[in-house]
Amino acid sequence: MKYSILISVLWIFVSCGGGSKGGEKPSNSAPSVPGLIYPESNMLCIDNVVTFNWKASEDPEGDAIKYEIQVSENSSFSSLLHAEKLTGVSRTFSLDKGAIYYWRVKAVDATDASSNFSPAYQFYTEGVGVTNYVPFLPNLVKPTLNQVINTQNVTLEWEAADVDVNDTLTYDVYFGENSYPSLVVESHPNKSYTQAVLPAKTYYWRVEVKDNAGAKSIGKTWLFKTD
């Protein structure tokens, strides 16, 4: 008799447990990251009325997708000139002439699951009567931000570009143990520089990009640590 009661109790428990699973909501995955098409990175836009285009995202569940586009004058997007949500894959904005802009897009599905933002593209709008353009801000290559390295000599590396394709670019490199690093090499011709370092330190560095007409862009301050 006790055996029969025990079997009955177990059957009720399993039945209740199995029924609870039916109330769980199905999982939802975010859409894919949109691919930027136009303006391309490091592009000079002749017209300051710019139509932005990007590739459509795909949603694993087939949900309807909206896109959020952001346009900023700084690469950190800490302040935005334009930020809109729309269902299409293009948007036109009127921008100032003779300025550098950054843009990016992310996808959001019907349940508000969102992709990461696309990698940001930078571009330049042509100015009135401008014969020379300021170089774009340098982009970090290595060491990556906050990377911990174990070496006695570190190679600092960055990317730089200028819409004036015939300009010759040189680089002022700043390096040190505080957030306001000192100049260590001026008018360096290459996009890399090797520097001796000590263990158990935090180092800060930045790059200023100059063209042969004297125009200059001042890069962000980056940091890394030694083991």
Describe the overall structure.
The protein has one helix at residues 2-20, and strands at residues 36-38, 43-45, 49-54, 65-72, 82-86, 90-94, 100-109, 121-125, 139-142, 148-149, 153-159, 170-176, 182-188, 192-196, 202-210, 216-218, 222-226. The chain is mainly β. The chain has two domains: 36-125, Immunoglobulin-like (Sandwich), CATH 2.60.40; 139-226, Immunoglobulins (Immunoglobulin-like, Sandwich), CATH 2.60.40.10. Strands 10, 12, 13, 15, 16 and 17 form a six-stranded mixed β-sheet that branches. A five-stranded mixed β-sheet has the order 2-8-7-4-5, with no helix packed on it. A three-stranded antiparallel β-sheet has the order 1-3-6, with no helix packed on it. Strand 12 and strand 13 (182-188) form a beta hairpin. It is flat, with a radius of gyration of 26 Å. The chain starts with a helix and ends with a strand. 23% of the residues are buried. The model is unreliable at 1-20 (pLDDT under 50).
